[in-house]
From TrEMBL:
Listed GO biological process terms: ammonium homeostasis
Domain Ammonium transporter AmtB-like: 2-83
Protein name: Ammonium Transporter family protein
Chief site of localization: membrane
Cellular localization per UniProt: Membrane
Length: 125
C-alpha cells in the first residue's frame, strides 16, 4: 500500500509517460487515483476472501471438534505424535503434575542463570 501511494507522490513524467506525482507538480490528481485504486483492490480482496471463508466454513469448517483439539491434532488427524514420546506435549512424564502445580499458583523458587554461548573469544548472551 505504501508503494501505491508513493507513486502518487513521487511519480515523474518520464516514469509514467504522463501524469506527475504531487511532489513533482502533478497536484492531487495522481495521488487520488492511486488511493482510490488501493481502496478498490483492498475491498475486492476482502470480499473474495470473505466469500471463500464462508464457503469453507459451510462445507468442512475451520475448527476441529473440542475433543480433537484437546487430545492433539497430530494424533487425531494423522494417527501419530509430533514429538517423540516423553519429549514434549501430552505424553511427557510429569507434565500434568507440573501444569497442575502452575494452576495452583506454584512457581519456581530459584531464578535460572543465563547461559553463555562462546564464539571464538567473545561470549554472547
Amino acid at each position: 500500500m505504501v508503494g501505491v501511494l508513493l507513486i502518487g507522490l513521487l511519480a515523474t513524467a518520464v516514469m509514467t509517460q504522463g501524469p506527475k506525482g504531487l511532489f513533482y507538480g502533478g497536484g492531487l490528481g495522481q495521488l487520488g487515483k492511486q488511493a482510490l485504486a488501493m481502496v478498490v483492490v483492498a475491498l475486492y480482496a476482502f470480499a473474495v476472501s470473505y466469500v471463500l471463508a464462508l464457503l469453507i466454513e459451510r462445507s468442512m469448517g475451520f475448527r476441529l471438534s473440542r475433543e480433537d483439539e484437546v487430545s492433539g491434532v497430530d494424533l487425531t488427524q494423522h494417527a501419530e505424535t509430533a514429538y517423540p514420546e516423553g519429549v514434549y506435549g501430552h505424553q511427557a512424564p510429569g507434565a500434568r503434575r507440573w501444569a497442575a502445580g502452575l494452576a495452583r499458583g506454584r512457581t519456581r523458587t530459584t531464578t535460572p542463570e543465563p547461559r553463555l554461548r562462546y564464539r571464538g573469544r567473545r561470549a554472547f548472551r
